[in-house]
Amino acid sequence: MTINDDKKIEDTIDSNPALDTSPSKEEQEKEHLAAIRAHELNYCRQRGLFNRVYYEAHCGAFPTEMAAFEDYLHKSTFSNVNPSALFDTEGYQRANIDVYHAGTSPLLHYIYHGEKDKRRRFNAIQRWVPNTFMVPKETKNWSQQSIAICLHVFYPDFIEKFANSLSQLPCSVDVFVTCASKEIEAEVKSTFSTLNTVNKVTTAIAPNQGRNFGPFLVEFSKQLLEYDLMCHLHSKKSLYSGREQTQWFDYLHQYLLADRHVLSCILRLFDEHKDLGMYYPTSFWMMPSWVNHWTCNKSHARPFIDEWGIEIDSNFLSYPVGGMFWARPKALKPLFEKEYEYQDFPVEPLPNDGSYLHALERAIGLLVEKQGYQQFFYHPPSAKFTVDKTYAFTNYAKPPHQLLSELRNFEIISFDVFDTILRREYIFADYAKFQVGKHLVDLDLVSSPEAFVELRNESELQCRKNKNFVGDVDIVEVYTEVAQRLHCETAQAQEWMQMEFEYDLQSISGKDEMVNLVNQLSDVGREIWFVSDTYYTEHQISLMLRHIGISVHYKLFVSSELGLRKDNGSMWKMLRETIDQLGKSIVHVGDNVISDAQVCGDYGFTNMHILHPEDKWLAAGMKPNAVTKHKLDEPDIIKWGSLMSKYGRYPLFGN
Question: 0.85 exceeded by the pTM?
Answer without folding.
Answer: yes
